[in-house]
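Project outcomes to date are best conveyed with an example. Our students and postdoctoral researchers have been running inverse folding experiments weekly, and each run begins with a structure described purely in tokens. The record below, which covers 280 residues, was selected by the lab manager from last quarter's runs and is presented without edits.
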């Protein structure tokens, strides 16, 4: 009887208008985090209250509600789960012990403390980035918590979950996004395809090290009239689809955001940047 019921369950990710499956990132996680249940569950070792950072396995949309269930918690630590979003690719993030304040000191990351009352074992929460840039968290009983952020709703975002303090285990339930006349949904599922793409990108980056050295030598001996680049001069894996205020179209969108927000100068001509134009 149980097997028959399982056969009748349909994955919403294969229905028309559904969102792409979402799970935790399999490669980028805090040193005390363990993944299980095909990437749907993350568990932090109880030996510490920190080093529990995790990310979504794919980019999420504005107003897409990421749904979580708190699976386990322990007493003895202060505080609980933190959730938020980042403009930075998880693979390009060096993981510190804490999301707040270690990552949120940068305007490219935003996170909020989930109220303790939302984080009892068995509780479900959802969080999303609103069109006005605010981060909103909602508990299963309808209570909400909202915080402003410095994130740009027009830029790509990834979900960020810090399994912190008393919270020790969280399950990904999927996501949903309200459209005009219906709600799009996803399930929590494997991200083998994305993981494979990540590995291929890393291998490509390694193979391009020699080309990078040659290109840097060329750039050091050219003027500011350098033509547009076909691939990003920062990561050397994505297409250079964004134009900087100096006129150079030489970076991909994620790298362009980091260059503009963190360094403030063009990687080619070193001129100060006054603007950044993604998807030019």
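After processing, the design step wrote out the following sequence:
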């Amino acid at each position: 009887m149980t097997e028959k019921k399982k056969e009748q369950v349909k994955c919403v990710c294969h229905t028309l208008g559904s969102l792409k499956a979402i799970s935790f990132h399999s490669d980028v996680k805090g040193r005390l985090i363990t993944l299980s249940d095909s990437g749907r569950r993350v568990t932090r070792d109880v030996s510490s209250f920190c080093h529990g950072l995790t990310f979504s396995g794919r980019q999420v949309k504005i107003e897409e509600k990421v749904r979580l269930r708190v699976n386990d918690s322990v007493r003895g630590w202060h505080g609980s789960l933190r959730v938020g979003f980042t403009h930075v690719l998880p693979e390009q993030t060096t993981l510190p012990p804490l999301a707040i304040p270690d990552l949120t000191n940068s305007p490219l990351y935003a996170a909020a403390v989930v109220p303790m009352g939302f984080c009892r074992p068995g509780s479900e929460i959802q969080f999303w980035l609103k069109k006005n840039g605010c981060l909103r968290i909602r508990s299963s009983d309808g209570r909400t918590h909202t915080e402003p952020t410095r994130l740009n709703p027009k830029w790509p975002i990834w979900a960020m979950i810090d399994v912190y303090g008393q919270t020790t285990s969280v399950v990904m339930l999927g996501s949903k996004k309200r459209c005009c006349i219906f709600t799009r949904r996803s399930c929590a599922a494997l991200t083998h395809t994305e993981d494979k793409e990540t590995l291929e990108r890393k291998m490509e980056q390694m193979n391009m090290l020699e080309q990078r050295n040659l290109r840097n030598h060329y750039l050091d001996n050219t003027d500011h009239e350098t033509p547009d680049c076909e691939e990003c001069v920062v990561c050397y894996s994505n297409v250079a689809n964004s134009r900087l205020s100096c006129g150079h179209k030489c970076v991909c969108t994620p790298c362009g955001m980091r260059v503009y927000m963190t360094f403030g100068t063009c990687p080619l001509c070193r001129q100060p940047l006054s603007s950044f134009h993604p998807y030019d």
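The first helix runs from residue 2 to 8. DSSP finds four helices and 16 strands in the chain. The training component of this project remains on track.
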